[in-house]
């Protein structure tokens, strides 16, 4: 029996690449294509383990190690929770994809002669790659474009006020059009952990959203820099009624500040 290693390697490389892209889409974790290609290449090297005299347990351990390496190389791990989420997604989608391939090969790669089923050597792996690749590539590209747009809305923010200084990452919220009714100043909302204001020392600004309404505790900003650029217009700094965590950002910039960026 002839075994074409280059074809086997290519098929496994493509399946690993599609698998990593599926994990990225499912977990909504953006990664550069170059990192996914390197990770897929490393994963495909496990193909050659099949030709080594290893028992099933040793082979299983090698595959677990290679899976961990693929995740570490392919994605930027920021927490233990993210790592285990990616691992679970990798194995979950591997089981689904592997089961689908096994089922289709059993259904269509065997021919029947009476009561005898004979494998005719035809593999559907390449056909499956050709069918699923455009779909997964399109979904991944769509997610990548969306993530890039979100990244463009992230800005480095430096704020000085009476309560001290805040250096954080801000997200330009196009839906944040809250202004104080007195001087029509835009309001930068920060996570409650970043600023503590009591009612006596705060400027109270009414707000209304789809979910709730109430009063924002605000203070005047003495100096505001965004991406190291000094912002001359006056803004208020307000304590958000909810925790803020958007791609690492802990403050929301008002939409009117976009003209000055």
Short description:
By secondary structure, the chain is α+β, with helices and mostly antiparallel strands.
Comma- or semicolon-separated keywords:
Cathepsin D, subunit A, domain 1, alpha+beta, 261 residues, two-stranded antiparallel sheet, 23% strand
Could you explain the architecture of this structure?
By secondary structure, the chain is an alpha+beta fold. It folds into 2 domains: 5-149; 154-260, Beta Barrel (Cathepsin D, subunit A, domain 1), CATH 2.40.70. It is 43% helix and 23% strand. The chain has 5 helices and 10 strands; from the N terminus they run ααααββαββββββββ. The chain has helices spanning 5-27, 33-44, 56-74, 80-108, 125-152, and strands at 110-113, 116-119, 154-161, 164-172, 186-190, 203-208, 213-226, 229-230, 235-239, 251-253. The protein has a 6-stranded mixed beta barrel. A two-stranded antiparallel sheet has the order 1-2. A hairpin with a 4-residue loop joins strand 6 (203-208) and strand 7 (213-226). Helix 3 crosses helix 4. It is elongated. The N and C termini lie far apart (66 Å).
